[in-house]
Amino acid sequence: MTEAILTSARAAVAAAPPTGDRAYERYCRELAKSLAEHWPAVLEANAEDVAHAEQCGLPPVLLDRLRLTDAHLGRLERLTETVLSELGEVTARDAGVPVGDWGVRLRAPKPLGVVFMVYEARPTVTVEGALLPVAVGNAVLLRGGKEIARTNEALSTVAHKALQAAGLPADLVTVLDDPDRTQLRALLKRPDAIDVLVPRGSPSLIDYCRGASSIPVIASGGGVNHVYVHSSADLDLAAEVALDSKLPEPTACNTAELMLVDAEAATGFVAALLRAAERDQRQVTVRLDPRVPRPHTDTDTGTGRPWRIAELQEHDLGREFLDATIGVYPVAGLEEALAHIRRHGSGHTEGVLATDGDVAQEFTRRADAAAIVVNGSLRLHDGPTLGLGSEISISTGRMHVRGPVTLGSLITHSWVVEARGTLRSSVPAHHC
Predict the structure, then answer these.
(1) What Å distances lie between residue 340 and 238, 326, 366, 367, 398, CA to CA?
(2) Calpha distance 98→206 (Å, rounded)
(3) Average pLDDT in the 128-137 region?
(4) Are the C-beta atoms of 34 and 159 separated by less than 8 Å?
(5) What letter does residue 18 receive in the DSSP assignment?
(6) Would you give the distance in Å from CA 334 to the centre of its chain?
(7) Which of 10, 76, 198, 308 lies at a C-alpha separation of 20 to 30 Å from 406?
């Protein structure tokens, strides 16, 4: 079974038209049409997955990950439109550069080949995976969590209808349905047949894929992200940044987990954070390090208060809370904040809040992450938001791509040398 899947995917890449062909534009349009046409069936399948997950006792935050609504359809339709608008620029050959007086060199876009995406219980990733890699000529194998098996089956039908309507090989998209890891383990051992591995999800999933495979990886990494609040920071802005970096999408990879606050500013920061939460009734749990004074209130859970105070434990450092929780940890200054980030950060997104420009510049010079945000929300680290284009994940690796994995990250290039009959022996020697 595994061999048949890999053979079919490789054959589909070979049979597909070159990257940049108009068939891929048709595919984007047809995928949007197919999603709209089959959305009732997708929602029905998704409702079964959600009901089963509820019976299994999954927490609400994970149920929200699996649940689809009509709002998701609108976002996915807009994504197909955005990808369509980006294709021309991303897949165009460059104009060419003269080489001496004898020829021209240029780069021609080519697909990476067979892309294997491994992810968890986010059905929107199935659509993203069936769209972005395929739109630039790749074949994709999609292995989502068993919690969305019924939804993925329905989305597989959506993708194959679109491929057929666009005149593209059906095996450019394969949604895998193995309920355990037997097939996954087999595929991870096939660097001869799979060109790139894209794991998305928890650090444990990504570590498993990295450890079990020698396939080149574009890894999104975990989202253990920090914001350093310098003593010069505007504390009201710091409070808003903390809440905006966490509450809209508590489980996203670019949310903040821990605010590293200069010790002398910690009490004022916590007060500003609670005021901001109360002002808009934003529900949040604030985990305070024992060295940070608790707020002077009769009770932490008084009537009408949207916030709750808890204690930050040692095991909270370096982990994702995956809910509406943010920690506050006092530091003795920039050096300690950077040391904490080096020890506990995941290299995804780090931030600094400071009106002292020298501090902000030093933080950006020495902190190491795929993105560093100065005086703003960590959720700004996003391909479309940064004007970089549609993304399939955010990479924390150092090779090939770091940061948003956009359409341009899902292609490679061939050097085309227009030699005009030139022989190497006629070109002056260049010594390295």
Answers:
(1) 19, 16, 13, 11, 21
(2) 43
(3) 98
(4) yes
(5) P
(6) 28
(7) 10
